[in-house]
């Protein structure tokens, strides 16, 4: 197991352990079914077992691990239903965010353009890890532009399962280049102060996971649980006008 080293100035130890383990689970460095040892992880981070135990509890609350009495802690499989629910919640919050961002004058145009440029570079390099981080930064910039940074923090826990599928989808099931274009459509609508077009572009973008989810669940049955019976891959529709 490979995890991110803790930062001495990075805040409470337990919170850092949560972030590091969450990242390892989302990026499949820790895969569903893998057992986690409090003692081993504490040793790797150079901390006591107490913050690791706290981290396990937090991660269990968002469905990333399961604490098994008398047996230990295991990385949870991806819940198909939880991914669909997370997408629903995220669409509701983030379409509202871009509507509000479009109504404000303090749009971070340069920051958005710089982020999109780095996304294109990551897509060309087929660097899924870098692209994933830039995707998060893009959505966070929009929330900050709307004055809703706290709203984005609220959905971070909700979308934990969704993030695993998003990472798994790159770069195969979902084209990073296509995601860059979708992000660009959102940014153009927001900077044009067009809330309806921005909301439509965001809705189309966040619906993308519904196209890749069935194929991923069928291709990786060992990673998912409670996959609907009779599932068939969904054909990807042509992009909506909002993303042009």
Please describe what this structure looks like.
There is one protein chain. This protein has 244 residues and is mainly alpha-helical. It has two domains: 13-75, Orthogonal Bundle (Arc Repressor Mutant, subunit A); 78-243, Four Helix Bundle (Hemerythrin (Met), subunit A) (Up-down Bundle). Helices cover 62% and strands 6% of the residues. The chain has eleven helices and five strands. Strands 1-3-2 form a three-stranded antiparallel beta sheet. Strands 4-5 form a two-stranded parallel sheet. Strand 2 and strand 3 form a beta hairpin. Helix 1 packs across helix 3 (49-61) and helix 2 (38-45) packs across helix 3 (49-61). The chain is globular and about 55 Å long. It starts with 12 loop residues before the first helix and ends in a 19-residue tail after the last strand. The model is unreliable at 236-244 (pLDDT under 50).
Distance between the termini: 42 Å
Strand line-up of the largest beta sheet: 1-3-2
Q: Please state the CA-atom Rg, rounded to the nearest Å.
A: 19 Å
Tally of distinct domains: 2
Question: From N to C, what is the helix and strand string?
Answer: HEHHEEEHHHHHHHHE
Helicity level:
55-70%
For the sheet with most strands, the description reads:
3 strands, antiparallel
Q: Count of helical segments?
A: 11
């Amino acid at each position: 197991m490979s995890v991110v080293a803790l930062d001495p100035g990075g805040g409470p130890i337990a919170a850092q352990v949560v972030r590091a383990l969450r990242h390892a689970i989302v990026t499949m460095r820790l895969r569903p079914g893998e057992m986690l040892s409090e003692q081993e992880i504490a040793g790797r981070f150079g901390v006591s077992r107490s913050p690791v135990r706290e981290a396990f509890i937090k991660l269990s609350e968002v469905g990333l691990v399961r604490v098994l009495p008398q047996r230990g802690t295991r990385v949870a499989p991806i819940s198909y239903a939880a991914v669909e629910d997370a997408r629903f919640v995220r669409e509701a919050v983030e379409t509202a965010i871009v509507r509000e961002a479009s109504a404000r004058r303090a749009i971070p145009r340069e920051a958005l353009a710089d982020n999109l440029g780095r996304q294109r570079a990551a897509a060309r390099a087929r660097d899924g890890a870098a692209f994933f981080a830039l995707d998060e930064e893009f959505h966070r910039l929009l929330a900050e532009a709307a004055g809703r940074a706290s709203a984005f923090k609220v959905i971070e826990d909700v979308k934990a399962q969704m993030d695993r599928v998003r990472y798994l989808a790159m770069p195969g099931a979902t084209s990073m280049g296509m995601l860059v274009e979708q992000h660009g459509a959102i940014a153009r609508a927001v900077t044009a102060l067009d809330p309806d077009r921005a909301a439509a572009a965001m809705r189309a973008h966040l619906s993308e996971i519904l196209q890749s989810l069935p194929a991923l669940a069928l291709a990786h049955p060992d990673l998912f649980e409670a996959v609907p019976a009779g599932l068939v891959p969904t054909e990807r529709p042509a992009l909506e006008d909002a993303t042009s």
